[in-house]
Specification:
By secondary structure, the chain is an alpha+beta fold. The chain has a domain of 57 residues. 47% of the residues lie in helices and 12% in strands. It has three helices and two strands. It has a two-stranded parallel ribbon with strand order 1-2. Helix 2 packs parallel to helix 3. It is flat and about 50 Å long.
Length: 85
């Protein structure tokens, strides 16, 4: 079986080790699994900002991403105010 080669950019952006706090999380492209991973890191509080870059071919994924960020932000606001969420 031939091993799939990754591009230089995939290797450059690849995580090595555990994720840690940063200024922002940047989600590259419109792939659902990337969105999910980035949103989970944001939900865990590893950054106070999250930015996404999508593709015009998949506008529904961009909307899903924005809605998920808004839901997370609302939950965080409720927790900060001592609410139930």
């Amino acid at each position: 079986m031939q091993e799939e080669k990754s591009s230089w950019i995939e290797r450059w952006f690849a995580l090595s080790g555990a994720a840690r706090k940063s200024d922002a999380i940047f989600v590259l492209a419109a792939a659902r699994e990337r969105n999910t991973s980035g949103l989970e890191l944001y939900r865990q509080g590893l950054a106070q900002r999250i930015l996404g870059c999508g593709s015009p071919r998949y506008p529904s994924r961009a909307r899903e991403f924005v809605e998920a960020v808004e839901d997370i932000d609302e939950t965080k606001d409720n927790e900060d105010e001592g609410g139930d969420g």
